Amino acid sequence: MFRKAFVFFFFFFFLLSVSVSLHAANALKNEGEIGSGGEGGAPAGSLVKKDQRRSLVSTEYGEVWSVDVNDGHRKPYHIQFITLEPNSLFLPVLLHADMIFYVNTGSGRLSWTDDDKIRRVDIKRGDVYRLTPGSVFFVQSNLETERQKLRINAIFTSNSDDDLYDPAVGAYSSIRDLVRGFDPKLLRSAFKVSEEVIESIVNGTDQSAFVHAIPTKKETFWDLEARFLKTFLLGNDGIAFNSKKKEETTAYNIFDEDPDFKNCNGWSLTVNKKSSHLLKGSNIGFFMVNLTKGSMMGPHWNPRATEITVVLQGHGMVRVVCSSTEANKSECRNMRFRVHEGDVFSVPRFHPMAQMSFNNDSLVFMGFSTTEKKNYPQFLAGKYSVLQNLDKLVLAASFNVTSTTIDQLLSAQADSFIIDCTSCAEEEERAMLEEIEKKREEEEAKKRAEEEARKREQEEQDRKREEEEAKKREEEERERQEKERKREEEERERQEEEREREEEASKREEEQAAREREEQAAREREEEAAREQEEQAAREREKQAAREQEEQAAREREEQAAREREEQEATREREEQEAAREREEQAARREEEGRQQEEEGRQGGDERRQEEERERERRQQEEWERREEDAQREQEEARRQQQERQGRAGQPEEQEGGGGGFNADEGRRYLTALKV
């Protein structure tokens, strides 16, 4: 039974830590197996399923399985499950660490050395026993009528934080391997026995950790080894294993003791150094809890101990809540998990927990608690709740509720420790499955998002790769084109060089031909010059003759021109005279017509005279135009004849002016005079 007097010492601790834990406990329905403390935080507890055990030894006579359980603060706790078939022997080993074990099923005998003495104890289901480091022990199972296997659940630890179980060394080592590790000659000198004995020990057939039990009548290899162990462990004068001077002792059996607490919902029992002298000097305690159907070990925490629990029977749910503040909440995750027979789980100190059985099955579990001082579990609900000792106003302020609500909270539950909780495990399992499903959906969504991200990244990589390939192809194409261009340029240069060489050759040929042509032309020019000189002389002679002819022709033309001018002058004089007569006649006619017009004007005949006057002017105009055209034709003819004379003479002659010919200016003056 737990005394209320110790509860007061945890008052301040509750104000600082438990209140936060209770706030977390109120949110249990919203938390999954991984808890709500953040995905990046460490879990509040540790769970190792039965199928996660490691096999150390497995033979037809026995097997050893192990698990390492971590509480998040120290090195892992090493648990072993040793199973012996009926009438089997677990061979002697040297113990490296403190060993506390519980016999789960079957019976047998444990033998070990202690203070130069051989001790033994009969063990059966429910026994709790302890062996200290340095002990050499072996275990033999009984051949019972029920042929039950001897099953031992053991924890290996130490009595100080500086000397924990070292996985590199192991929990124990075989005595046979230790002895056989020495040289036979050294062993013969050390034990002062014959060579035959040493050879039988050293050269014996290797055996595993388990063998069939030693016969009682016929001496075998194991009898020889037993006598050898007597000398090895105790000296020649020591007591052998089968000596009649063995000291008997007894184990602590939990079924022979009354439970610490028991009601209709189950019972619990705790074994520590106070209740059993076997655990004195050890920092490991033992406990067992039996929950009936639909029950719960109320929410509680251990202020000084970590619990390492093994499920012995049935199945149930476990809820573990982080003991944290707002500052380190992200470093821990609340947990809820389902446990079955053979599962191992641990809960560190200060972490509130609750174990629940299902409505259709009970839950039995045993465990080891690690503490160097007295540990009194603190319960949140029930008759012995730590809340009962606290001021209700402080509690109301802590939960931000009224005092009436606190009274209702603390007065409703009359049971303590183990309480009725119908369907609690089912609800926890449902919440766990929902959280698992939610987590699975979140993981699937995250996986889909990651897949999409990877797909986008892959597409981006493909796009970049395609761009790089396209760029590479473009570069290769550019390089190819550049190479092609260079080849073309080289080809063009080569062709240009060939063409230049051909042109150079052609140029040389042309120069040679040109020189030849120049020479030929020079010769031809010389010949031509000679011919030209001859022709020039001939032309000079012809020119002299031509000049003489031209001079003769010029004289003739001058004479002809003089005659033509005389004729033209005579013609002009005649025309002028005719024009004068016509003007006089016209003046006379105009006077006559004027008189007639005056007479006709008086008679009204002005229109007829005007018409006649217009007709007369028209005829005069046509006559003037005809004469002007004739004058122009004559002038053109004279000019043409003059050009022909100049062409025949071979040099230009100045056009004679003065009285020679009838030019355009004279014609215009003549026509103007006619008009007047």
Automatic annotation (TrEMBL):
Keywords (A to Z) from UniProt: Signal
Signal peptide: 1-27
Ranges of Basic and acidic residues composition bias in the record: 437-647
Region named Disordered: 437-676
Keyword Signal recorded: yes
Keyword Metal-binding: no
Domain (Cupin type-1) ranges: 45-199, 252-407
Residue intervals passing through the bilayer: none
Gene3D superfamilies documented for this protein: Jelly Rolls (2.60.120.10)
One Pfam family this sequence matches: Cupin_1
Designated name of the protein: Cupin type-1 domain-containing protein
Organism: Malus domestica
